[in-house]
Design a protein that fits this description.
Elements lengths: L5 E4 L7 H10 L9 E5 L1 H7 L4 E4 L2 H7 L4 E5 L13 H20 L5 E3 L4 H6 L7 H8 L7
Parallel strand pairs: 1-2, 1-5, 2-4, 3-4
Length: about 150
């Protein structure tokens, strides 16, 4: 059986995450990267990169498309995306992307989770209560915080 692809939570769609993901896909062969897919709003990548992007419905679809285009599992519309200008809609999209990507990794549909950068300030403004993404993922995976 083939290993499932990595799930990459895009992070804030107005941040550097979409660019980092696009550059990683461009370097996939040279860097011998395993198949991966982004989770988030595909428009964030298309706004800063003119490479091939394909919207997929599942991690299996992503693995099949990876050699031809950067697969993106679109989970929600982040509203108006202005690179470098994070906002509440982008924070909600980033959080939802993280939740979905963590769930896919936890279920085994994705081999692992990679997190893109987020705007903690924007996350806190929408009610995020964790110190960071790591603690959020740990909670979702049933790992108790260390005291």
């Amino acid at each position: 059986m083939t290993e499932p692809p990595l799930a990459v939570a895009m992070g804030d769609p107005a941040g550097i995450g979409p660019e980092v993901i696009a550059k990683a896909w461009q370097a996939r062969e040279h860097a011998n990267l395993p198949p991966f897919f982004a989770v988030g709003d595909a428009r964030a990548i298309e706004r800063i990169w003119d490479g091939p992007v394909v919207r997929v419905q599942s991690p299996g679809d992503a693995a099949a498309q990876f050699s031809r285009a950067l697969p993106v599992l679109v989970i929600e519309d982040a509203g108006e995306i202005v690179p470098g200008v994070p906002d509440a809609e982008g924070a909600r999209c980033a959080l939802h992307s993280l939740e979905v990507a963590a769930g896919l990794a936890r279920s085994g549909a994705a081999a692992a989770l990679v997190t893109g950068p987020v705007s903690k300030r924007q996350l806190y403004d929408i009610g995020f209560t964790h110190p960071g993404q790591t603690e959020f993922v740990a909670e979702r995976c049933g790992i108790a915080p260390e005291n």
